[in-house]
Amino acid sequence: MTAPASLPDVESVRTLLRRVIDPEVGVNIVDLGLVYRIDVTTEEVLIEMTMTSPACPMGDMIMDDIDAVLDEALPESLRVVVKMVWDPPWNPGMMNAEAREHFGWEK
């Protein structure tokens, strides 16, 4: 069975998630390394992600922004499930090179 043409792929979902900015640091959640996994099926998009800390004060705002970005771009028939995971714990080494550069860190 092939997927409908309007079904997003993992990279297009990742691109959409780059529009979600962590307001505390001004960098998107993908480049920060907060998104651990994206799976796309014909019924759902599953995202496993974390926050920089379990006590992140902007967590609800980030989750709302994820909902807004994905609801606008994905077909209504596609369920979006965002699972918050804490293992492995996030650390600055999970950021990509551009995010590290944003903070003035070379590696």
Tags for this entry?
single chain; 107 residues; alpha+beta; GMP Synthetase, Chain A, domain 3; three-stranded mixed β-sheet; two-stranded antiparallel ribbon
Overview of the molecule:
By secondary structure, this protein is α+β, with helices and mostly antiparallel strands. The chain has helices at 10-17, 59-73, 97-102, and strands at residues 21-22, 27-28, 35-40, 44-49, 79-84. The protein has a single domain (10-102), classed as Fe-S cluster assembly (FSCA) (GMP Synthetase, Chain A, domain 3, 2-Layer Sandwich), CATH 3.30.300. The strands form two sheets. Strands 3-4-5 form a three-stranded mixed sheet, with helices on one face.
What is the overall pLDDT average?
A: 92
Distance between the termini: 44 Å
Number of helical segments with 4 or more residues: 3
Number of DSSP-assigned strands: 5
Biggest β-sheet: count, sense, barrel?
Answer: 3 strands, mixed
Topology-level CATH name? GMP Synthetase, Chain A, domain 3
Uncertain stretches: 1-5
Strand content: 15-25%
Query: Could you give me the name of the CATH homologous superfamily?
Result: Fe-S cluster assembly (FSCA)
Report the C-alpha radius of gyration, rounded. 14 Å
Order of helices and strands: HEEEEHEH
CATH class: Alpha Beta
Name of the CATH architecture:
2-Layer Sandwich
Q: Can you tell me the overall shape? A: globular
